[in-house]
Amino acid sequence: MSFKNGRKKLVLRESFEDVVMEAFNKMGIKWELGTAIQEYNRGNTTQVPSSFIIKLKNRFRGKIQAEGRTVIFEDNTNAR
């Protein structure tokens, strides 16, 4: 999307979570959903995770954000 002042804004066609998962897969970075999301998906809790938290299996030093949302890395795994 472009504005009159020449600035552009990123507009996602899919959900933020889908875009992040696809990006990590394309970069060859191994990951899994964070503990809170896994617990919710298993039905062990009714507490809905408010953030998209993932665990990384290998190193990634970047930051992924769009539309005011940012990926949170469980246990700061991207900093190792």
Reconstruct the topology from this structure.
Blueprint (H helix, E strand, L loop, with lengths): L15 H12 L3 E3 L1 H8 L10 E4 L8 E2 L2 E2 L1 E2 L7
Structure characterization notes:
The protein has 80 residues and is α+β, with helices and mostly antiparallel strands. It has a domain of 46 residues. It contains 2 helices and 5 strands. A 3-stranded mixed β-sheet has the order 1-2-5. A two-stranded antiparallel ribbon has the order 3-4. The radius of gyration is 15 Å and the shape is globular. The model has no long low-confidence stretch (mean pLDDT 84).
Rg from C-alpha positions? 15 Å
Q: For the report, how would you describe the main beta sheet?
A: 3 strands, mixed
DSSP strand tally: 5
Strand fraction equals: 15-25%
Which spans of ≥5 residues are poorly predicted at pLDDT below 50? none
Strand order of the largest sheet: 1-2-5
Described by its quaternary structure, the protein is single chain
The secondary-structure class comes to: alpha+beta
Helical content band:
25-40%
The general outline is globular
Number of helices: 2
The topology string of helices and strands comes to HEHEEEE
**Overall pLDDT confidence:** 84
